[in-house]
């Protein structure tokens, strides 16, 4: 008995001619032609089946090269019987596909064909345009155009599919590449500055706060209300609140995460004693020159400027200046103790927000400048200014800590109360201009420490709650209500309750948080992002080339 290859070759008039048109070319009936066609197919199948895997791979690779060659010949017109066949194709593609079918059904031929496609398309990975939607679409359409088309097929359709898959692959690649890029913050530049400052001050803001992501903020708000996750969310909020309190207290020289009344009182006494010590060891000379003018001259200039606003303004400012000068001795010297008392007396006048507050502020600064330049005690002006700064901050903190509410009752600084206290201490203008050590922290408290999702976010909460729990719980209910296995129902309920716990564990993982908060890229990350985009485009081109 002859082998498969001999059987395959023994068909009368040759298998290729018989298959092309068995009836017309040989004069045989259609039935006879079909018999010979079946004979050819069986012979090709037997021949392909007798190949080793390696031979199948090589044959599949050669098959793809011959396909592209036939497609190119069709485009060039060598295989066309008319111009329309450039688009619709010819019989030869159908004939070749039928003869190749037994081979392509073997396990090795597909591998070989794919290897050829990779050999042809893989060099495209070096083309930057392959990472763009347009470039990948052009590459996908061009490769698809080389596929031969039969009589009832359309090259235009192949090109459209190839271009679409190439473009789609590039989009997927860009999406994957975006994972290597910095997070896109939804915060304003000022809010981003405050977020960085908060973390530098030790306030443990998470990705939801740092990026301003509303979906992440909503997830946090939902997890705060669900069983088994509320405890950890409460602990996160407590850590943020305590970090905020610690940052605020540090501005008054206090270390700790609690605004304990004893700690506040102790620091107030310590700062007061330090100010008294420095003030008692120094005096203020009103006749000493400073930048070509004495303190008396500066106070006179302030009174003259106030008089331009009218008699009433001049009277009030002049009255304060006269009272200050009334405590100066004949040598033009005021005791440090009296100077310190005047500083405290001028504080509410400066922050009162009245029409004369600006001038009272000038008086206070004139006194401070002169005293600082004359300090002779240990530590000098630096120790004096630091103690004054901390004492002023402490006065503002005491006002916030003494407010009503749950947070103040737990010795925490309420963000809203601090904002109000800063506004009162600095005045509206000073608050708007960002004056004071506590101004930024007051803004941080309003932006990041208070609840980021208000109670009115019902729709968002319901949506994410449904995503986290409803599916699993509903499945469990279906098992139970339909008379299913109680064990499966219990497992379904456990899955429903466990889904939020798993989501919380993933979201709060330090590595995940660090990834979500990344704000800068690196050359390696940029290269990976670009490679992902190009790989996606290449994948789309390859996929399109398999759609034959």
Report low-confidence residues grouped into runs of 5 or more: 1-37, 478-482
Q: Whole-number average pLDDT?
A: 78
How many β-strand stretches?
Answer: 4
- Largest sheet, order of strands side by side? 1-4
Rounded Rg: 42 Å
Q: What general outline do the C-alpha atoms trace?
A: elongated
Q: Decide which structural class fits the backbone.
A: mainly alpha
Which percent bin holds the helix content? over 70%
How much beta, percentage-wise? Answer: under 5%
Please tally the helical runs, counting DSSP H or I stretches of 4 or more residues. Answer: 27
Distance between the termini: 37 Å
* Assembly state of the chains shown: single chain
Q: Main sheet, how many strands, which sense, barrel?
A: 2 strands, antiparallel
Quick synopsis:
The protein is built from 27 helices and four strands.
Blueprint (SSEs and pairs):
Blueprint: H1 4-9, H2 15-20, H3 22-26, H4 30-49, H5 53-76, H6 85-88, H7 91-104, H8 107-121, H9 133-145, H10 155-177, H11 189-200, H12 207-211, H13 214-223, H14 230-250, H15 261-280, E1 283-285, E2 289-290, E3 293-294, H16 295-307, H17 311-325, E4 333-335, H18 336-351, H19 357-374, H20 380-401, H21 406-409, H22 415-432, H23 439-449, H24 458-481, H25 486-507, H26 510-516, H27 523-546
Helix pairs in contact: 4-7, 5-7, 5-8, 8-27, 9-10, 9-27, 10-27, 11-23, 13-24, 15-18, 15-20, 16-17, 16-19, 18-19, 19-20, 20-22, 22-23, 24-25
């Amino acid at each position: 008995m002859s082998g498969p290859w001999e059987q395959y070759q023994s068909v009368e008039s040759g298998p290729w001619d018989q298959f092309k048109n068995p009836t017309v070319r040989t004069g045989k009936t259609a039935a006879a032609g079909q018999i010979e066609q079946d004979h050819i197919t069986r012979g090709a199948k037997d021949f392909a089946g007798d190949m080793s895997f390696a031979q199948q791979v090589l044959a599949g690779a050669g098959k793809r090269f011959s396909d592209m060659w036939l497609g190119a010949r069709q485009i060039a017109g060598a295989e066309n019987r008319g111009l329309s066949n450039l688009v619709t194709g010819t019989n030869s593609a159908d004939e070749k596909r039928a003869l190749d079918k037994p081979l392509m059904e073997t396990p090795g031929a597909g591998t070989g064909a794919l290897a050829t496609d990779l050999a042809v398309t893989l060099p495209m990975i070096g083309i930057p345009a392959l990472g763009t939607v347009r470039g990948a679409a052009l590459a996908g359409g061009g490769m698809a155009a080389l596929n031969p088309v039969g009589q009832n097929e359309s090259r235009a359709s192949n090109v459209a599919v190839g271009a679409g898959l190439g473009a789609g692959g590039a989009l997927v690649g860009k999406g994957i590449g975006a994972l290597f890029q910095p997070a896109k913050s939804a915060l304003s530049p000022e809010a981003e500055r405050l977020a960085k400052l908060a973390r530098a001050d030790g306030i443990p803001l998470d990705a939801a706060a740092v990026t301003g992501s509303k979906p992440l903020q909503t997830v946090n708000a939902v997890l705060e209300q669900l069983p088994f996750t509320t405890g950890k969310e409460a602990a996160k909020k407590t850590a943020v609140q305590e970090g905020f309190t610690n940052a605020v207290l540090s501005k008054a020289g206090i270390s700790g995460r609690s605004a304990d009344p004893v700690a506040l009182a102790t620091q107030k006494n310590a700062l007061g004693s330090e100010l008294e010590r420095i003030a008692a060891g120094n005096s203020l000379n009103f006749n000493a020159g400073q930048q070509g003018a004495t303190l008396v001259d500066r106070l006179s200039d302030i009174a003259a400027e106030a008089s331009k606003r009218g008699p009433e303004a001049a009277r009030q400012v002049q009255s304060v200046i006269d009272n200050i000068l009334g405590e100066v001795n004949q040598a033009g010297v005021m005791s440090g103790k009296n100077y310190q008392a005047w500083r405290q007396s001028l504080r509410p006048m400066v922050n009162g927000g009245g029409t004369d507050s600006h001038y009272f502020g000038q008086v206070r600064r004139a006194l401070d400048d002169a005293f600082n330049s004359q300090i002779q005690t240990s530590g000098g002006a630096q120790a004096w200014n630091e103690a004054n700064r901390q004492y002023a901050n402490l006065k503002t903190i005491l006002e916030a800590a003494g407010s009503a509410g749950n947070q103040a009752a737990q010795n925490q600084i309420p963000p809203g109360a601090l904002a109000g206290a800063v506004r009162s201490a600095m005045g509206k203008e000073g608050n708007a201009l960002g004056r004071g050590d506590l101004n930024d922290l007051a803004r941080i408290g309003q932006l990041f420490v208070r609840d980021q999702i208000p109670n009115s976010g019902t729709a968002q909460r319901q949506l994410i709650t449904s995503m986290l729990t409803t599916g699993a719980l509903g499945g469990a209910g279906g098992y139970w209500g339909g008379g299913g296995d109680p064990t499966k129902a219990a497992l379904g309920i456990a899955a429903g309750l466990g889904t939020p716990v798993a989501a919380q564990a993933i979201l709060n993982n330090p590595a995940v948080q660090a990834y979500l908060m990344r704000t800068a890229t690196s050359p390696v990350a940029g290269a990976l992002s670009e490679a992902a985009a190009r790989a996606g485009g290449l994948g789309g081109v390859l996929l399109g080339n398999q759609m034959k």
